[in-house]
């Protein structure tokens, strides 16, 4: 069974932030879009 989650990615200056809406506390802040996507996996 696979579950789908909503990831939210924002860019502020040189930093990207991302989080999963359905899971509190799952967030990341990094320099590249690739890194934020990998961290949210």
Q: What is the rounded distance between the termini?
A: 16 Å
Structural class: alpha+beta
What percentage of amino acids are in beta strands?
A: 35-45%
Can you summarize the main beta sheet?
3 strands, antiparallel
The number of distinct β-strands equals 3
Task: Please describe what this structure looks like.
- With 41 residues, this protein is an alpha+beta fold.
- It has one domain (7-40).
- It has one helix at 33-40, and strands at residues 7-12, 15-20, 27-30.
- The chain has a three-stranded antiparallel β-sheet with strand order 1-2-3, covered by helices on one side.
- The model has no long low-confidence stretch (mean pLDDT 96).
Outline of the structure:
This protein is α+β, with helices and mostly antiparallel strands and 41 residues long. The protein is 20% helix and 39% strand.
């Amino acid at each position: 069974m696979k579950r789908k989650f909503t990831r939210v990615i924002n860019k502020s200056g040189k930093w990207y932030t991302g989080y999963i809406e359905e899971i509190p506390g799952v967030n990341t802040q990094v320099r590249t879009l690739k890194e934020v996507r990998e961290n949210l996996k």
